[in-house]
């Protein structure tokens, strides 16, 4: 077995399978993980703020930017993670598989790390397509796994720190170290003990034929040069990012082949995530007696649509920036939220609860911190792109505010209640 494993490693040896390459790809992957974690936390706390948390409302595209980055970095992880696994693949054939307790812990955390990473980026990607082929709640699991991954990343970096620091820079003479290949080729190893131990004669019979097979198949992989490998990784990352980033980054829209949403597609040129049918609001939204109720200090004030239209109207350019990574800029017109707050006499630091006509659904009730209430760009919108708001975009009235995730831009508004501090 030992010999078989050794031969497997030898056969898999390649110029790209070395610790320098593992470090180069590893730090890109590490950076992508950190970006995903940071932007993910930001998105999470916007939706579930801890008591006393407040957020920047500007720039207005802040969330479009952070969440776009989250999805782009997450998508880039696919080729990067595959590249990393390709590089360290021969380590699977180390024999004995564990050399003591610490080594066991190290290998177990790596196994967990790889598994959890694959699950995380896969469910994240499927979520952008609104496809949930699993029985658990996506957000909670994605959030929890994020913490698990950051912990495992810290352990992994800690354990590999000596290697990482050693191979952080290119060797002084410009050559790339060939650590794994060296270890796998006894004839090239500097350790004579290793050479003597492994010898060169092959066993016969089945084992021998298996070795012949292993030795013959990876001929192609052996020829993978470092430059070719890095080019492949770079092209793959550029391709997967370039072909999806257009869903949030307008200049790349034409190349948006795989991104689940296209700009300009949908009623009034804006994509729709949840339809009036799915939300079961069509009847209530089209009812002639619809009115928006504001509740402050126990007093209810109602505004019919005509009354809202009679108030001063403001036009703003703000994006819908969905947590699922797509975003779309649009022109909205309606009543400033701060004007409504003033009409009912709300104090400057009053936050509100936004309640939709939609009766079920996790976004039928959301909260709006006073920093958004008091931002002059925050509107109870009545018009979109120069027309009366379409039913699918929240008719009779919907909330639109700068720097917030799409899920908090409540459609089909019904009530706006002050949250007593
Ligand atoms: N009441 C209600 N409002 C909602 C939603 C919802 O499910 N119910 N979906 C939100 C989500 S996830 C997004 S991205 C935006 C999309 O707005 P649009 O359909 O006008 O593009 O609406 C938000 N407002
Ligand atoms: Mo969304």
From TrEMBL:
Keywords: Membrane, Transmembrane, Transmembrane helix. Residues 287-419 form the Oxidoreductase molybdopterin-binding domain. Residues 178-197 are annotated as: Disordered. Pfam families: Oxidored_molyb. Signal peptide: none annotated. One of its GO terms (biological process) is respiratory electron transport chain. The chain crosses the membrane at residues 21-45, 65-89, 110-132, 144-163, 229-250. GO terms for molecular function: electron transfer activity; oxidoreductase activity. The keyword Lyase does not apply. Residues 178-196 have a biased composition (Basic and acidic residues). CDD domains: SO_family_Moco. InterPro entries: Di-haem_cyt_TM, Mopterin_OxRdtase_euk, OxRdtase_Mopterin-bd_dom, OxRdtase_Mopterin-bd_sf. This is Molybdopterin-binding protein. It comes from Cryobacterium roopkundense. The lineage of its organism: Bacteria, Bacillati, Actinomycetota, Actinomycetes, Micrococcales.
